[in-house]
Amino acid sequence: MLFSSAQGTAVMDLTTAETIGTVSACTVTPTPARVAGLRLRTRGRGHHTLDWKDVRSFGPDAVAVEEAGRIRDEKDIGPGDPAHAAHDPLGKPVLTETGLCKGTVVDVEFDARSGRVVHLLTTEQRIPGGELLGVGGYAVVVTARP
Amino acid sequence: MTVYMRASEIIKKPVVTLAGEAIGQVKDLVFDSSTGSIRCFTLAGRGLLAGPLHRALLWDNVHGLGPDAVMVRADSALEEDDTAARPGDGDRTGGDVLGVALTTCGGRRLGDITDAVVAMGRAPVVAGYEISTAEQRRVLLPVAGPVTVSDERVLVPDETARYEAADLGTFEEAAENLRGSLRRAPKEG
Amino acid sequence: MEWWIWLVIALAAAAALAVCLLSVQARRRSGGVIAQGPGPRAGGGRHS
């Protein structure tokens, strides 16, 4: 599924059946390319992050979490953590390892079951997840196709 | 076919790790005047108020140099200091060639250097210069072999003046012709 | 003097300072093409 269609999906707590927040962004980590975490918009100030491994199921209408305690405040997450907001690919330029820009990431196509990233969609082309080398604060780096 | 780039296109390019973090931007290109080969880059920080980084990036540690960024494997690709960019023992002090006069050995001033032309590839070399002539024309002149550089001028063989190019597209032809003429008359220069 | 004259002077001083800082910063960051090479050949020069 496309990440843009998952934006705004409610995240529900399976123990209380309450909505904790809504999905606002995702973070992606390479080798293999997969969604590492979800950034949530919660009530009140600040952002919260949910690790992908704590997602019980990613349904079309709601994301299920075992308990609300799994949600972490973004302030407690270091930049080295794959769930840190710096690893959000949306809006970042895509650079090949040879230093060529291939457009800006506009969407992420991922498998809702495994979290595997199938494609990165840029303003210019679709880049297979297997070519992803890194997602950082400045750019998304991919291998140079021969 | 060799790809040529202007030095000004490399200067200010971001230096990006394969993890996608920008760790600086290129400040100076440092080249060996006896061979023309690029030795290293010096870097500046990326913030508006950031100054020089004082950490050199050796060419051997560059993973890829493209039109949009200089790629390095990781932050550790940078040297801990900038001694590589400073002249070593016995080296003539490193001088910036931008702005100095390009003069032939015969004593004719061809113009002031406004940019350098870099031949890209596995071992990039400074292959020529862009000069602004006395008539305010911008032309590209190829160089071959060692050049003598001082704070005042860059000395090139007399033949150089005959092989000017208007742009990077015709530069390769001019460089080929210059090399051909130097091969025919190896003693001159 | 009128009070607003001092305001104009202060603003002008601030603007001059900003221009100075910007030019210094541009110079710190501006790049070049640095030539390094062997010095005058040993034994070749008349000096030293």
UniProtKB/TrEMBL annotation, chain A:
Boundaries of every PRC-barrel domain copy: 84-125
Domain of life: Bacteria
Protein name (database record): PRC-barrel domain-containing protein
Organism the protein comes from: Streptomyces malaysiense
Lineage: Bacteria, Bacillati, Actinomycetota, Actinomycetes, Kitasatosporales
TrEMBL record, chain B:
InterPro entries found in the cross-reference section: PRC-brl_dom, PRC_barrel-like_sf
Domain of life: Bacteria
Domain PRC-barrel, chain residue ranges per copy: 5-76
Signal peptide positions on this chain: none
Name of the protein in its database record: PRC-barrel domain protein
Organism: Streptomyces malaysiense
